[in-house]
Amino acid sequence: MKRYKILIIQAVVMVLVTTSCTKDLNTKPIDPLVSTSTTVFDDPASYKQFLAKLYGSLALTGQKGQAGLPEIQASDEGTTAFLREYWAAQEVTTDECINAWGDGGLVEYHGGIWSDNNLYVKLMYERLFINIAYCNEYIRDVQAKLGSLQSPLKDDVTHYLAEARFLRAYYYYIAMDLFGNPPFATEADLPGTFTPKQIARADLFKYVESELVAIQGDLYDPGANEYARADKAADWALLSRLYLNAQVYTGTQRNSDCITYCNKIISANKYALHSSYPNLFLADNNGYRDEIIMPIAEDGVNTQSYGDMTFVIHAAVGGSEDATNMFGIASGGWAGNRMTTTFVNKFADPSGNTDKRAIFYTAGQTLNITNPTIFTQGYLCAKFKNVTSAGVPGSNGTFVDTDFPLFRFSEIYLNYAEAVLRGGSGGDAGTALSYINKIRERAYGNTTGDINASQLTLNFLIDERGRELYWEALRRTDLIRFGLFTGGSYLWDFKGNTQNGTATDAHLNIFPIPASDRQINTNLKQNPGY
């Protein structure tokens, strides 16, 4: 079920969050039309409605559909969405995407010349911490009421609490990955009573890990929750990702732990590689729970935003592409994002005839990019579309039905293989090779793309992760883990803001704390290099 009851919840949440800043949080309002933290859960349905707001904040921007009552102020409300900001930070900064709009923040992203005044850095930061604040509010109020509830409501709310803690852990994981040493607050910190302190990256790693482990018993079993809601498999998938990157975050490798959680997902026997790679990114991909462990749910009627998958699909369409019939967006493309030449060349045959994952549009496009603002320079990514696997357009010609795969089973195979190659225990090289060849056999349609044991190297894997997971908001993190995001050992078009690419400084591996927040919160020290 893709529908979120957003409009009802948003009104409730805004009142609740706002009024919870008063001195007496237990005050009951005289006006019966006003809800506060004291009364909002008088209706048992509110527990799930507020939870829907937490999930909706992965894609939506405010209290009035696609625009009108934004949660974050910006000239374009769509730019304040979590998915749009996170996707840009993870993709536009890398070899997988270059943008043609010439927007100052995005030019700085791809050129590696951003500062603490970059608009996209600021909006990403603000979205992360407003979403964390929503989670804290929910956890604080619901925990206080849990003891007074009776089954079966108490059982349901126990699951909801675990999901809220999962979402908060997910946001803090991203804050750790992007900003290194961000501000930190939990449900124990009442809003308006203090200025958040800064937490060190390694300490935040421990917090995220402890939360994800602590909630496992209260999450549904793999595949047993409603669609697009977190379960044990989503928790394990995030832990596998966390441990795979532990060396970056803490200085200590945790590859054996990564393998442990990959094995949990694999042995659950709930997931497999879906038979068709291209179908995983179409408007009816909500039917593919066999591979998509947890998505960000989209619906052209009920989740309208210019910053969710609507952005990802529209921004990639332009040139001579048929927006209506090929992509299901009759309102047209935005002619912004396309692939770099360097990334396209990771496919020996970019036509898609050999490796079906090469879903590029080339008609009227040049492979080489000499001017980033000319959209017809660079091959286009046609991976995500608002049409179903039967070729039927989505429910709306602007706002798309295509879900974003937050965790996908093929990533688990790739995580397992990489952790084994990096020396982790609990797995073996033969199994790692078999997992990689399963991915490639789906891509090639047969065994002609199989590799042998000597070919399974870390250099091979970083390219294979790109071929399998491109535009799924993982690339920046992957390149950093492999030591390729900054420095000069790996160059791509306009890295360092030059056509052929040039070395960049290592301080760019984490983003700056925005200047706007440091002016308010004097507890925050800037990350090195900014």
From TrEMBL:
Alphabetical list of InterPro entries matching this protein: SusD-like_N, SusD_RagB_dom, TPR-like_helical_dom_sf
Places the protein is found: Cell outer membrane
Signal peptide: 1-22
Keyword Mitochondrion in annotation: no
Keyword Translocase on entry: no
Taxonomy, superkingdom: Bacteria
Keyword set, alphabetical order: Cell outer membrane, Membrane, Signal
RagB/SusD domain span: 349-530
The SusD-like N-terminal domain, residue ranges: 48-244
Main localization (coarse): membrane
Protein family membership: Belongs to the SusD family.
The protein's name: RagB/SusD family nutrient uptake outer membrane protein
